Amino acid sequence: MERHSKRLIEELTSxxxxxxxxxxxxxxxxxxxxxxxxxxxxxxxxxILAEAFTDRIIARWAKTFDLWQLPALTLGxxxxxxxxxxxxxxxxETMTALLRNIGSEIVRALPTxxxxxxxxxxxxRGILEALGHELWADFGLNFCTLHLGAMMNPPSNAPLTExxxxxxxxxxxxxxxxxxxxxxxxxxxxxxxxxKAVQELILDPGTSWxxxxxxxxxxxxxxxxxxxxxxxxxxxxxxxxVVEAAGGIFKRLxxxxxx
Length: 259
Hints:
The chain is an alpha/beta fold. The chain is built from nine helices and four strands, in the order αβαβαβαβααααα.
């Protein structure tokens, strides 16, 4: 196997960075979380998915766009799950400082200014959107974020909206890390929730609420979705669709490069 086939920045030597990473390279930063995902998925589900999707995206598109992977950020903003044992969340201040520091270090240490965050946790979306403007304006980084949750679950007419730990996430975990899925617990999860409450408390574009995943109106055992409908086959189809869609995003990123 080629020594750099996985294209991990941390596995390069310092001279190799100067030789292999160029101004047109694209850095991929997986971002996850440590939080409850119901009784059937591990706390690091979002981190597993961020890293696994990044690995597959790089395998598919590295030669076309010269992609390199940065070490993953394993903690995010997870206060909506803070009620559950094991959930660990950064503060907004800490995550802001961390991402800004990463941006400044990329500019100092690496020749490229192209950075893509591959975000596995929906709760990170707001801060990544806001900080994208600062990373661009303050550090000159050509930046965007792939929000895996939204890419995995496009709008549909399904009776239950998939938000957290349901059909989509469980299916992808069955496809990518089946040994970590507690299959015996899935049958014990009640799938029903108040769809109107989910739309009003989580998805209303006109109002933002500090919702929590222990709110019985929107979740059962921390799950918002239908985990019982999950399958590895459906998960593999999601993975293939998301990986293929990433190509257009990298193309647009390079078109956004500053002179």
